[in-house]
Specification:
Elements lengths: L12 H17 L7 E4 L6 E3 L3 H6 L6 H4 L7 H12 L8 E3 L1 H8 L5 E5 L3 H11 L5 E4 L3 H8 L7 E5 L7 H16 L4 E8 L2 H12 L6 E7 L10 E7 L5 H16 L6 E8 L2
Helix pairs in contact: 1-4, 1-5
């Protein structure tokens, strides 16, 4: 979807959940000395400036990182995320927010590899500029779903695949199920993290049912809504993690109530944490 740019939404409450989950998985993969591969299907520009017209237009970052920046929560996966944002803002003021590619670049080891796909020409150029010349990090101006077919499985046979479409095209829901099934057949040992918005509860649960019936084992559902369900409009978001680290569910049991307390509007939020399919 070439009309979509994540710069308008960077740092919002949905990014907080997505990036906490992403960073927790990367930290787990780093426990082994063996290198891993990170694959990002919808990479965006990779990094965003708070003062930009895009981020200031709706000020969505104020619903997420704006409420967390500079805090200590006592929850390791949240505090690590906040610390990483802080390390990218050395003046102490929140001037920039990292997209998922920059989070990976900041957290990876020299031996870990990344492959980033982005179709939007402007964001592709910005992403390429952020990455620079690196043998371990490659940027592809390529359709997300074609990139999954062309670039998986990675030689490392271990890693994280982040799937994060805009969902502005309803077909994305069906496409994700098919793409996951195909990718899982080729790379069943990988961890997949799929972001989804909560726009309308019935549609969300239908999507969960489709994923649960996709023939993919060991799916963990993580969800945080900052507002009660409504008929229209985004009230929350979630992550479906395939082959999650065994530590992730316990970490999220601690993190979700804290995120709900800090980010939900008027205490009206809700969380969900469940095993969508068994191991």
């Amino acid at each position: 979807m070439l009309s979509y740019r994540h710069s308008y939404h960077a740092g919002n409450f949905a990014d907080v959940l997505k990036h906490c989950t992403q960073l927790a998985i990367i930290d787990y993969l780093k426990r082994k000395d063996k290198p891993f591969c990170y694959h990002d299907t919808h990479s965006g520009a990779g990094s965003y400036t708070i003062a930009s017209a895009e981020m200031q237009k709706n000020g969505e970052y104020q619903s997420g990182i704006g409420k967390l920046y500079g805090r200590r929560t006592g929850i390791s996966i949240i505090d690590h995320y906040i610390d990483l944002i802080g390390s990218l803002n050395p003046t102490g003021r929140l001037n920039g927010y990292p997209g998922s590619p920059q989070i990976m670049l900041s957290a990876r080891r020299p031996t870990d590899r990344a492959q980033l796909t982005e179709l939007h020409p402007t964001d592709y150029a910005l992403l390429q500029s952020l990455v620079g010349k690196s043998k371990k990090v490659k940027v592809y101006q390529q359709d997300a779903w074609q990139g999954l077919k062309a670039l998986l499985p990675p030689p490392e046979k271990r890693g994280l695949v982040l799937i994060d479409p805009s969902y502005e095209v309803k077909q994305d829901y069906k496409t994700i199920v098919t793409a996951l099934q195909q990718a899982y057949k080729r790379f069943s040992t990988g961890t997949y993290a799929i972001w989804y918005p909560v726009l309308e509860r019935k549609a969300t649960e239908q999507f969960m049912g489709q994923l649960a019936n996709a023939g993919v084992r060991n799916m963990l559902r993580i969800e945080h809504c900052i507002l009660p369900d409504v008929e229209r409009g985004m009230t929350g978001s979630g992550m479906i993690v395939v082959n999650p680290p065994y530590t992730l569910k316990a970490d999220m049991e601690l993190a979700l109530p804290v995120l709900d307390k800090l980010l939900s509007e008027g205490g009206a939020g809700s969380t969900a944490l469940e095993q969508l399919t068994e191991e």
